[in-house]
Amino acid sequence: MNFDEVFNAQNTKGISPEKLAFLKAMSSRQAGGNAQEMMASLMSISNSAQKQGVAFSDSERDLMLELLLNNLSPEEGKKARSMIQMMKRMKH
Questions:
Q1: Which end of the chain is more exposed for a tag (fewer CB within 10 A), N or C?
Q2: Checking phi first, is residue 57 left (phi over 0); if not, alpha (psi -120 to 50) or beta?
Q3: How far apart are alpha carbons 19 and 14 in whole angstroms?
Q4: For residue range 58-74, what is the model confidence (pLDDT) as tens digits?
Q5: Which of 60, 66, 54, 68 minimizes the C-alpha distance to 13?
Q6: Are 32 and 24 contacting, i.e. CB atoms less than 8 angstroms apart?
């Protein structure tokens, strides 16, 4: 999924330009990478946003995850989804 597709998607309406800039950075990361690289990329973007005072809602974080997952191979995407589910269970 490229940024233009995401930008024009219904689920981005109402997201601030600052947050869309982070989503654009996210969408350009690691096409074909692996699950560990994806998680590192997510952490990097999240830390950068936090330092700039940008906070994401749960739905915005889910969108970022989908962007990253779409850049992975099916096998790596499955691994990443397992890691994400594990992290969500630990959070609750």
A1: C
A2: beta
A3: 10
A4: 887 787 777 777 777 88
A5: 60
A6: no
